[in-house]
Amino acid sequence: MKRFIFITAAVFFLGCTAIAQKDYPEDKPPEGLKLSSILYGLAVDPDPEDFANKHNISFHKNRVKVFIYFDPASSEPDRKKIIERYKLIVEKKSMDLLRALVPVNVLIPLSRESVIWSIKLPDKPIP
Amino acid sequence: MPKVPKIITKKLFIILSTILVVNFSFSIAGFAKNLDAVFKKKNVHPKMTSRLEKLGKEFKKSETAARLFALKRNIKIDKENEIIVYVISDSKVYIDEATFESFGAKVIKRSDTVLKIKAPVNMLKTIADTIKGVSLIKLPDTPLPLAVESEGVVLAGASDYHISGYTGSGVKVAIIDSGFAGLSSAISKGELPNNVVKVDCTGPNCVSTNFNFETEKHGTAVTEIVYDMAPGTRLFLIKIGDTLDLIDAKNYAINQGIKIINFSLVVANTNFYDGECWFLNPVCTANSAYTNNILWVTAAGNEANRHYEAIFSDMDNDGLHNVSGSDETLNITAAASDSIHVYLTWDAWPGTNQDYDLYLYDSSDNLIDSSLNLQTGTQLPTEEIVYSVPVDGDGTYHLVINKSHATTNHRLEVYSAYHKLTPAVSTSSLLSPADADGAIAVGAIDQSDWATGDQEPFSSQGPTNDGRIKPDICGPDGISNDVFGTFYGTSASCAHVAGAAALILSRNQICSASDLMNALPTSAIDMGNPGKDNIYGYGRLNLDIHSDIVCSDVDESGGGIDGGGGGGCFIATAAYGSSMAPHVEILRRVRDRFLLNNRIGKSFVNFYTKYSPTAADFIAGHDILRMFVRMGLFPLVGIGWVALKFGPVFTLSLMLLFSFLLICLARRTRQLLKVK
Fold first, then answer.
1. Which of B70, B123, B171, B623 falls 20 to 30 Å from B131 in CA-CA distance?
2. Is residue A25 part of a domain?
């Protein structure tokens, strides 16, 4: 009987601590990267196309569609330089926000640029 | 019998001559525009329907004119300018098929006295005139599909508006949505008109499109409701993919003179749901539309069961948010191939160094996805997970919120786009732009519970996170819809309100967006707690045809009506029998162009709009009176036509010249009479 109570209590205890035993990884994008974690995941994944499919990301010819927020204080020539240097295909822009098709392999260096505030997936409406 | 003094006779003569000359002069201008329709009946061909005869006449002018005429009347002309018609023959005469061939026509089928033929448009009259035994040529009789009409039309009182002649005529409404699949089918079934304007703003610019490769039907279903409510409106269907497209769509609407936008979509994680405009989010866009005199009608959202909010709490100091007691998980039940889409934000907008993270676990407590955005100062306080459930992945999924680095406990907001959250918090479950000051947010009541409530359990509730009461009003859902069968959700409710606004605008053309925003709640039937509340807003949508629509605001953008209808020209419409008559259109254009852009003109239009319907009703019931009114309106129409064609300066100069000539004529006549 004692053994039974002990086993039951042990099972119960383990069950209770299951959540606490979960793994909470801290593999955030490295400091200085102004990239959302899902885009960072895409950039470092060995199979970005598969990653994009799993996460419903618009991905075509190794390019991903993103919103780029520029530092409002940055100048237009500086922004142009960045666009040219990283061969971004600009789809549309409004003030400090740009929608562009960015090659996956430049996401990380692009996000380190000082004129960029952040890079994230486009905000899509929900029906 | 007393003698009439000679001087009075002279004056009377002069006045009558003047009226006659003015009438005659401007009637000529009117006739120049082919305005007189009084004796048209005399010229109707005895063996052709008037539509076909007119088509033939248009074809004589040009092929383009004929095609335009046909397009407007849903008449199909093929590339070779041929048309399919019925030829009704005299029962005593057998018409040989070869006879038609000599006119370039071909018999497709025949039955008894009816022949279905394909003939060149320009030969129809010849066939009617030449072939012996032809009694009538007409367009084929096609069965009308039974259109599905939303029950909301009657429930909201729109049918009373329709009966009274207000159908939204002249009002431009944009439906901004994520897709318009099935549009062609809806048009062919008569669920939508064939003159809808189709625009795609997902590319670099907004461009005209045909929506042939669409998969998302939501926009079509929504449009169907707007059309049911206000069948006279001009509909602009605008497709978007994200919030930057939405800005383009709004700008397009402003440029097109659109007065009402229906937005049956919501967006997450672009502010703290407090009506703040950050980084060009949908609140900025809706508010901008409103300042440009566009009424933005928006769905409150279907998130009452998909929303959780609380202040971060960590009783056991493990860094994880305690959702309920010691439970640290928010649960989602998802099926295979579902897309789990969850958003987390906290009250640290716009940029923050307060860092929280979001984790997703499967039913076996395996970590399957996470959102670990860095928040080090400039980044948004947001996390977002998009995860496609594998084919064998049915089950319960768990969300966990981790405080990575934050100096205080923040208020957290979690939304799941497509799945219920357990536990859920229905209070304050509005997404953007339903939280915008410049938008009228619409909640949902099932049409079968319309009079009593309750509100739909999924319909998002207020208040906004800055404490404002929302939604503003409720519309019906659970209605019949050709696209979805039965259409549930605040998207459907929103479309009813947008259609209702179009009806009000067609009834009172000078209403501004602000007026409409006031008019809809004013006539709503209060539900729930007295006054505006966070569940029903001001209550359920109610279009009362007998209530006055007060439009006190000055519409700085120049009125709410476009150039395509006869809304408001009550007397002219009564006199000419149709709001689409060219005379009425000229008068309406004159009103829009020359009266609604100044205060005196607006006051006149206001006065006219208020008092003319009674007179119009009387005129419409008396044919002789209608004829006299038409004659009386001829000079006005003529002046209007000249003003529109050549501008106001030329018209004023012309009128001055006429006045001068008339004065000279009057003096000369007086001198002649004196001499005699």
1. B70
2. no
A68 in Cβ contact with A91 (< 8 Å): no
Query: Residue B177: beta bridge partners?
Result: B239
ipTM beyond 0.90?
A: no
What number of C-beta contacts closer than 8 Å exist between A and B?
A: 131
Q: Would you tell me how many other CB atoms lie within 10 Å of the CB of residue B38?
A: 10
Closest CA to B226 of B240, B237, B242: B237
Q: Which residues 431-460 of B have a C-beta within 8 angstroms of A?
A: 431
Domain that holds residue A44: 32-120
A14 in a structural domain: no
Q: Are strands B473-477 and B439-446 parallel, antiparallel or unpaired?
A: parallel
CA pseudo-torsion sign B187, B193, B194, B197: negative
Q: Give the Cα separation of A92 and A98 in Å (integer).
A: 6
**Contacts of residue B431 in chain A, CB cutoff 8 Å?**
126
* Neighbouring-strand partners of residue B345: B382, B413
Task: Mark out chain A residues that contact chain B at CB-CB < 8 A.
Answer: 18-20, 22-29, 31, 33-34, 36-38, 53-57, 67, 69, 71, 91-97, 99, 117-118, 120-127
SS3 A93: strand
Question: Distance (Å, rounded) from C-alpha B177 to C-alpha B198?
Answer: 11
* φ and ψ of B305, to 5 deg: -100, 0
Q: How many domains does chain A have?
A: 1
% residues pLDDT > 90 (chain A): 72
What pTM, to 2 d.p., does this model score?
0.68
- Which is nearest to B374 in space by CA: B353, B345, B400? B353
CB contact under 8 A, A125 and B282: yes
Task: Quickly list DSSP for B297-352.
Answer: EEE--S-TTSEEEEE---TT-SSB--SBTTB--EEEEE-TT-EEEEEEEES--SS-
- What is the mean pLDDT of each successive set of 10 residues along chain B, which is 676 residues long? 58 66 54 42 75 88 84 78 89 85 89 88 92 88 71 96 92 97 95 96 95 94 98 97 96 96 97 96 96 97 98 96 96 95 97 96 94 90 94 96 96 97 98 97 97 97 97 98 96 98 94 94 95 97 88 46 45 69 73 70 72 75 83 87 82 87 86 77
Q: CA B633 to CA B623: how far, in whole Å?
A: 15
pLDDT for position B554: 44
Q: How far apart, in whole angstroms, are the C-alpha atoms of residue B449 and residue B176?
A: 28
Tokens of B158: 């729109």
In a domain, A8, yes or no: no
Going from the N-terminus, what domains does chain B have, and what CATH number goes with each?
1-45+563-676 (no CATH), 50-138 (3.30.70), 152-303+433-523 (3.40.50.200), 307-416 (2.60.40.4070)
Quote the tokens at residue A87: 């061969």
> Strands B395-405, B295-299: parallel, antiparallel or unpaired by DSSP?
unpaired
Please state, in angstroms and rounded to a whole number, the distance separating the CA atoms of residues B585 and B595.
Answer: 14
Q: Tokens 């929608």 identify what position?
A: A99
Q: Domain of A80: which CATH number?
A: 3.30.70.2980
Q: List % helix, strand, coil for chain A (3-state, nearest 5).
A: 40, 25, 40
Pick from B265, B384, B388: which is nearest to A127 by CB? B265
CB B299 within 8 A of CB B266: yes
Please compute the mean of the pLDDT values over residues A47-72 and round it to a whole number: 94
Which of A21, A24, A35, A113 is the best substitution to test chain B (most B C-beta atoms within 10 A)? A24
Q: Is B379 on the interface with A (CB under 8 A)?
A: yes
Dihedral sign for Cα atoms in the order B225, B231, B233, B238: positive
pLDDT the model gives residue B539: 97
Residue B376 structure tokens:
């080090």
By C-alpha distance, which of B433, B421, B486, B176 is closest to B300?
Answer: B433
